[in-house]
Amino acid sequence: MKKAGILNRHLAGALAELGHGDGVLICDVGMPIPAGPRVVDLAFRAGVPSFAEVLDGLLDELVVEGATAAQEITGANPEAARLLDARLPGLTHVPHDELKLLSAGARLVVRTGEARPYANALLWCGVFF
């Protein structure tokens, strides 16, 4: 049994399958989930787990070489925008509709219980060497 890190067996297994260039969408409860990517749904109740908790947990486990978020996050959810800016240097922004299109190419979708708007980020996996 694991004693640290991500304990959810579905999420831990999905992360172990990722490779360089794969996309991981971390999304709020309102983001439409595209057909195709593997989905690990962590949502329990509104706000649980939070976008911040899941983002931090994933960043502890993954090498991230780039990330994309919706432009609308800055005005609609400044707290999440500040979180992403602090955690993801080089973050790019696109219109929300474009982020939805990009998310169809993700290998993994991790749905949080976040119930504030535009708390979504598409992470691009890097390599540790």
Quick summary:
By secondary structure, this protein is of the alpha/beta class.
What does the secondary structure layout of this molecule look like, with pairings?
Elements: H1 9-16, E1 23-27, E2 38-41, H2 51-61, E3 64-70, H3 73-76, H4 78-87, E4 92-94, H5 96-103, E5 108-111, E6 121-125
Parallel strand pairs: 1-5, 2-5, 3-4
Antiparallel strand pairs: 1-6, 3-6
Folded structure, characterized:
The protein has five helices and six strands. It has about 130 residues and is an alpha/beta fold. The protein is globular and about 40 Å long.
How are the strands of the biggest sheet laid out side by side?
A: 2-5-1-6-3-4
How far apart the termini lie comes to 27 Å
Number of DSSP-assigned strands: 6
Largest sheet: 6 strands, mixed
- Unreliable stretches covering 5 or more consecutive residues: none
Structural class: alpha/beta
